[in-house]
Amino acid sequence: MTTMTTGSDTLTRDALAVLQPGFTGTTAPDWVLRRIGEGLASVGLFGRNIVTAPQVAALTAQLRAERDDVLVAIDEEGGDVTRIEVRTGSSFPGNLALGSVDDLDLTRAVARELGRRLAECGVNLNWAPSADVNSNPDNPIIGVRAFGADTALVARHTAAYIEGLQAAGVAACTKHFPGHGDTNVDSHHAMPRIDVDLDTLHRRELVPFRAAISAGSKSVMSAHILLPALDPDRPATLSPRILTGLLRDELGYDGLIVSDAVEMQAIAGTVGIERGSVLAIAAGADALCVGGGLCDEGTVLRLRDALVTAVRDGELAEERLADAAARVRALAAWAQRARGDVTGPGAAVQEGTAPGTDSDIGLVAARRAARVTVAPSWRPLTSAPYVATFTPVMNIAVSSETPWSIGAELAALLPGTESGTYGADAAAADVLAAAGGRRIVAVVRDEHRHPWMAAALDALLAARPDTVVVEMGVPRATPRGALHIATHGAARVCGRAAAEAVAGV
Predict the structure, then answer these.
(1) Which terminus of the chain has a lower count of CB atoms within 10 Å, N or C?
(2) Which residues lie closer than 8 Å to 433 by C-beta, 6 or more apart?
(3) Which of 180, 188, 484, 488 is catalytic?
(4) Residue 188 a catalytic site member
């Protein structure tokens, strides 16, 4: 059933206010501007919306010409997950790199500089950081996006990241509540299930979220995961016991609760996006992320009308929808004030990160995160090598447009460097043939999760013991090779740090 609405009544405005949709194009479509005028309070930007920083600034200015306090959100974690630098790779290492250094001032400074760059583009809500404890080494979706597998470390860096980001006037959105680290299923594709008892949940998963709340995180993102110890029937995003009972009542969180993308299969493939959106708001969510995949006006209208119909049919309390919309508007008001505080007269600017300049804090962090294991015979390369990148199937949170590896960075230091990419059907003989007499640099990612990758590397090292190995995922496999570098992430700056180590710069 589709409910016809005028676009001006309070109920319809509230239904639009809780949506955080995406759209296509590098300028705002007319339908987005029109819906903002009717009550839409947020939009989400993705890689498809971004070409350059000035272009993004012009886009957000276009949106704010319709509504000055509109929330402009983005999924900019740094590291693997970048939208602002989707085609070049991030200038900031991801969480695992920061956690491996374990310097809270560094994490705070990286987050603040990332936030400053977002704020300069007009973005004021970042769907980050990930506060997940990566306790399952086979996790296909979190991995290097987590600060680590140690609960206390994850908690303290989550808090530091939030402090740095929000000091730049950009609201943090701590995710994925109540913790996506102990899964071996990607919720983009199916429904993950975490079978832990309540004691484990409180001792491990929830500790970083308590730290986030104490640090003043302006928003928290729910996960589409099933935790039978809390709710055997509904995933966290749709569970009143988890969103209201646990997050609101028990943990005392009073900020904005945002759902993870409702078009992910854990929701879309089970209850559907319309029903899922109604259940999420009823459970305690205040905003619905949609638009990574479904980014058209029709989707916005379907979700708007589903919420309006649910209220009119008595399935969703009008007060609950009104409360959710009020929380969205409250965050929008905070972001508007924060923008003035950061950019207005007398605003404090961190040394080295003045508006209009680029800080190299990301590269500094990546260099510090690189862990180098050297064989006695190792000498830095002085001639152009062959870079063989073993590429697994990437998780969907990482854009297929985002480059990784170290070939380009190494070529800048050792001109003439050549590169090749190898998948699960790769054989060491293929690499050896392509390399010829060149030294080989083998780049892997989560070797411990991919037997084919480990086997190819074994064969390559047996034939060429002088091979350099660069691990750009979670470094759980034993270091081997003439030189082994664990970058703790695949951001562009991580590739640069590895290339410097290979070339002895």
Answers:
(1) N
(2) none
(3) 188
(4) yes
Among 89-98, 241-250, 258-267, the range scoring the smallest mean pLDDT is: 258-267
**Does 260 participate in catalysis according to the annotation?**
yes
CA neighbor of 362 nearest in space, from 352, 372, 374: 352
Assess contact for 118 and 76: CB atoms under 8 A: yes
For 272-385, strand residue ranges (E) read: 287-290, 371-374
Per-residue pLDDT for 394 more than 90? no
Secondary structure element (H or E) that encloses residue 165, with its range: helix 151-167
By the 10 Å C-beta count (0-12 exposed, 13-18 middle, 19+ buried), 97 is classed as buried
Rounded Cα distance, 123 and 219, in Å? 15
Please state, as a whole number, how many other Cβ atoms lie within 10 Å of the Cβ of residue 397: 18
Strand order in the sheet with 287-290: 19-21, 287-290, 256-259, 219-222, 171-177, 125-126, 71-74, 42-45
Rounded Cα gap, residues 135 and 177, in angstroms? 15
Catalytic residue among 260, 286, 305, 446: 260
Asked if pLDDT for residue 30 goes beyond 50, the answer is: yes
